[in-house]
Write a structure and sequence with these properties.
It is a single chain. The chain is α+β, with helices and mostly antiparallel strands and 210 residues long. It has helices at 19-29, 76-89, 163-173; strands at residues 6-16, 33-37, 43-46, 56-60, 65-73, 93-98, 109-113, 119-123, 155-160, 177-184, 189-196, 204-209. The strands form 2 sheets. It has an 8-stranded mixed sheet with strand order 2-3-4-1-5-8-7-6. It has a 4-stranded mixed sheet with strand order 9-12-11-10, with helices on one face.
């Protein structure tokens, strides 16, 4: 497994039909913590044990779904290098730079579309706001958690048609590893793939062919 500087999933931006009920669901049922709202009406949330400012972004829209998923990389140097590698790979389209501050407390992001049609982002900077616990002798968790109270966002299941192209991009360009795959028929056609960005197998996207 080649380590190319991608650290972990950083955020996922989701379209919801009605913002107020969605926020209640994400905060009271799932137990995420709201950290900000912006002038566009987007709502930013994080899991309790995440130190970064946000990991989930909600946007009200008529058609629900995922706008994009972001990956944190280890430095701005890595960000520039991986952006150039993605551009040169021939496996991505609709590549653009999103300026710093478009997400609150977040540096510039490089956005691109992978062969399955999903928009992905790479970014190196997001302000850390902590997890509500001290760094010396912390408790196991803070008081006042609600709902399911997940500790972090660490993987995403995506469906699409060009599974092979997306898997090649994540492995050959971004340095991920294939941990498991689902194959079908005598040709052993790949119809599902599980990828990891590090030896911990949960820090990953999973793709399933439609």
């Amino acid at each position: 497994m080649a380590i190319n500087g991608v650290l972990r999933p950083g955020h996922v931006a989701i379209r919801v039909r009605e913002m107020d009920p969605a926020v209640r669901h994400y905060t009271e049922v799932l137990g995420l913590i709201e950290t900000a709202r912006d002038a566009q009406g987007r709502v930013y949330l994080k899991a309790w044990d995440e130190h970064d400012h946000h990991s989930v972004v909600l946007r009200e829209a008529t058609d629900p779904g995922m706008d994009y998923m972001g990956w944190r990389v280890d430095s701005t140097t890595t960000l520039k290098k991986l952006a150039a590698d993605v551009e040169g790979s021939g496996l991505a389209s609709e590549m653009t730079w999103i300026p710093a501050g478009e997400h609150p407390m977040t540096g510039e992001r490089f956005r691109f579309t992978i062969p399955t049609g999903h928009a992905m982002e790479l970014f190196a900077e997001k302000e850390k706001v902590g997890n509500g616990l001290p760094t010396t002798n912390p408790d196991a968790w803070p008081d006042g958690l609600r709902g399911m109270a997940p500790s972090r966002f660490d993987h995403c299941l995506l469906y699409g048609d060009d599974l092979g192209g997306s898997v090649r991009l994540f492995i050959d360009v971004l340095g991920f590893a294939l941990t498991e795959q689902i194959v079908a028929g005598p040709e052993r056609l790949m119809i599902g793939a599980f990828l990891t960005v590090r030896p911990n197998p949960t820090m990953s996207p999973s793709f399933v062919s439609r």
